[in-house]
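FORM 7B: Structural annotation worksheet

SECTION A. Query
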Amino acid sequence: MNEQELYGGGFGVVVISAPALSAAASDAVQQAGGRVLRTIAWTSVADEIGQQAGRPLLLVDTHGAEPDAMEIALARIDAVATALDLPIVVSLGTAEIDLVAAMLLGPRVAMLCDASQTELVAALAVAGASNSAASLLHAHFREGESERLRRLNAEVARIAEALARLSVQEEESRRGGVGDRHQSFHATPARAQPGDAELVRRMIRARRLRDGFFGSGLFEEPAWDMLLDLYAASLEGTRVSVSSLCIAAAVAPTTALRWIGKMTEAGLFARQPDPVDRRRAFMMLTPYALDGMRGYLDAIRRLGTL
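SECTION B. Predicted structure
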């Protein structure tokens, strides 16, 4: 039985919100083409979450919720969503960024900060369509489409073989092939230099300086702005909360949160729980990202641009 058969048309949504806001949340679900399966108050999450069959979409609205109730409920939501592979759309305010990100930050979660009704409806429609497609795919596999699975495995094997050949070619090139004719900026591992933290901070200030001359919104590059901010913090030995990183991104909070999710999924950012406050998490660069930033600064030094 696929998702539409199970839910009687549309995609199924479980709404978690304060009772006073459940009607507005349900209206957004209906406008997006979904069907509300259940509305759960924050105080009832522990008892009621995860009782639906299939893979419903979770709509979590944090407005009007008590922080203590949210902390307990979000941990339960994360556990159930992880176990059942459920997608989540979160509508939150700026004040809740750190608490929600500490619990729910991940590739299956879309976080909308201070979103309009139109933005919420659009996010639900996208998440619902993706979830329905994934559920149909799961159903096809359960129905035993062995030939499709065989072709998929063959394609994966072909890609793996091609990557292996490219790896061998790259190694041969590094040992004396054509690649040696070009200067390599990765011959030796780069190390942080004295003054790098101040240098990165100057780079950040220079990027913000452009807005004063040309207006904001023309030079948005949140991924790079966040990389610079986290690298400077790493050099300075300080920690950066999710809300602070959103500010450093110099874009709307929803856009920043989306990029934080992408960078985390790409293996560049990592979430580090606050050891003294469960309601907050810090973001940090992974070892891979740190190596990349050190290498980048070393490379531009060699080019003479610093």
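SECTION C. Observations
The two ends are 62 Å apart (CA to CA). The CA atoms of residues 88 and 175 lie 48 Å apart.

SECTION D. Sign-off
Analyst initials: ____
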